[in-house]
Description:
By secondary structure, the protein is α+β, with helices and mostly antiparallel strands. Helix content is 41%, strand content 33%. Strands 1, 2, 3, 4 and 7 form a 5-stranded antiparallel beta sheet that branches. 25% of the residues are buried.
Amino acid sequence: MVIAMMVLLVLAGLGLIAMRFVRMETASGGYARSGRNAFHVAEGGLRVTAGYTAQQPDYFHRQSAFNNPVAPTYTFPIGHLARSADASRLGVMDYQATMSRPRLAQPPALFQVGGSMANRFVFYTYQMDVVGTVNGDPVARTAAAGGAAAVKQLRADVRLGPITLNQ
């Protein structure tokens, strides 16, 4: 009788350990999924921001130099990615992008760069930092406590141009 009780206690302990292990694995899988979602939010924010700058490269280049002539920078307002119909599961997906550190770049391959001496086209390469969050704050780079929140940052070089350069 005592041996049977001991065996049942050992089996119950092993069952509790197995249940805890499954719970930890499920939670870590949820964290990885949220992190992957935050990375995709940052990637989508980078694509959207690069698209905006490609439409009016001269404007963003001038604004970044106006904001800080020594180290040109431009911070875009917080962007929101559209959510699917299951918004309660995905959460709030926000991103913020900042372009900084312009460097002169060679024109793209097979791109005709023309103009006279008084009107030339140049290209700049800006460093783009995009912070994507799921249930978080991209400005403070923080995420709410819980398993469905994450923060990811993505950095890329984005070619900006052609920008007219008057001499």
